[in-house]
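Students often ask why we bother encoding 3D structure as a string. The short answer is that it lets us treat folding as translation between two languages. Here is a chain of 260 residues written in the first language.
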Amino acid sequence: MKIAISGKGGTGKTMLVSLLSTIFAQSSYSVLAIDADPNANLAATLGFPNSERIIPISEMADLIEERTGVRPGEVATFFKLNPKVNDLPEKYCVEHNGVKLMVMGRLKKGGSGCYCPENALLQALVTHLLLERDEVVIMDMEAGVEHLGRGTAKAVDKLIIVVEPSRRSVETAYRIRELAKDIGLQNIGVVGNKIRSEKDKDALISSMPGFEFLGFIPYDQAIVEADLAGFPLVHSSQRVMREVEDIVARIIEPTLYMTA
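And here it is in the second language, the structure alphabet:
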């Protein structure tokens, strides 16, 4: 199963990825969590020790040069667009409490040609992880689908967009859905987060007709305090954990999906 998580910054994407990864791992699945958000903090959220020492793949200059033939920052006419990556998960993933983690780093935007070797390596690695790994892969992405393409979108079983009760969050969800459809990714669900009342829930449903809602995670100050203190979130709130367990059940069993 391959799951991609996106949404506006601050909506709780990383929290959801960490809890989904933990629940799948506790259910005896082999789980590989991918931090593809430039503001990488999934390791800390999962409670990995010394998380600040994990170096993103995009910053491993020696590795990039070895696999693509070009060192980051150098101008080169040719480099390998399909570098070898199948051995990288075993070499560079870290594991804690049954969850394996890889930190990808930032994809460079168009126009920064000298950074193409990093992009080539990251894109090849994402393709390998989504198309060839026989395990649950959960990817924490920024507010878009930059790490995905037409070739990898078909491997994603579910794109989950995290939203909170705010206009900008909902607008971002619509943009992400259009970007996803452009690459052929149709299986899209929504998780509402920071829900304080039925009014919040109803407002999201009414403003997002046609979206599949997988669940609504309640606001809990305990989650905020645990995050600020740098504590793992998995044991911070039983209310939140129960709702995410229900979301996992809906991901596994599509007949339980709710459509707005």
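Translate back mentally: The first strand starts at residue 2 and ends at 7. Keep this in mind for the problem set.
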